[in-house]
Design brief:
Blueprint lengths: L8 H11 L3 H15 L5 E2 L1 H5 L10 H8 L7 E2 H14 L3 H12 L9 H12 L5 H15 L9 H11 L6
Antiparallel strand pairs: 1-2
Helix pairs in contact: 1-2, 1-5, 2-5, 4-5, 6-9, 7-8
Length: about 170
């Protein structure tokens, strides 16, 4: 049988090239990936990805997984995992990066803007169960009115950045 790992040396090299990570960083990600998929699998489902202890109670896991699933097949392979972790790590380094990450996590239709329903979802994650759905919707509508400078009914990245700066939302990442 030979090699006990299903992730080939070529896949590791490809991950290093595409992510600009060191061999040590990619090897660390390889160990983490194999931790939740097993050594003989090459792809992970959302359920397997969610099994990582540090992700168990994270409300962003399904959306983060969807962002990593570049080919939209419902699974992530090692390269998609490395690319996703690299994006997540680099965006978390600065306030602007955190704003971009929050936007990516909540912009479900990928139109580059947040609608009132997407903003309501964001608030439900940050407020938890402490506010009713009706109150969350009202707060989202009020925030949209206050920060929607161009009055198009959505928040652009710039408008959302102003909201995040005013509320300190990026500290939650």
């Amino acid at each position: 049988m030979g090699n006990s790992s299903s992730i080939s040396a070529a896949a590791v090299e490809e991950a290093k090239i595409q992510t600009h990570m060191t061999d040590e960083e990619v090897q660390r990600l390889k160990r983490r990936f194999q931790k939740f998929v097993g050594k003989r699998q090459t792809e992970a489902t959302l359920e397997e990805f969610s099994s990582l202890p540090e992700l168990s109670n994270n409300p962003y896991v399904p959306r983060l997984f969807a962002l990593m699933d570049l080919d939209r097949n419902g699974k992530i392979n090692f390269l998609e995992f490395c690319l996703g972790m690299g994006m997540y790590r680099s965006l978390r380094k600065t306030r602007d990066g955190k704003v971009q990450l929050l936007m990516k996590l909540h912009d479900r239709d990928n139109d580059g803007k947040l609608s009132v329903s997407e903003l309501t979802d964001l608030l439900s994650v940050t407020a938890g169960k402490s506010l009713s759905a009706e109150l969350l919707s009202q707060v989202a509508s009020s925030l949209l009115s206050a920060y929607d400078v161009d009055k198009d009914g959505t928040l652009s990245i710039q408008e959302f950045s102003s909201l995040v700066a005013a509320t300190g939302m990026s500290k939650s990442l």
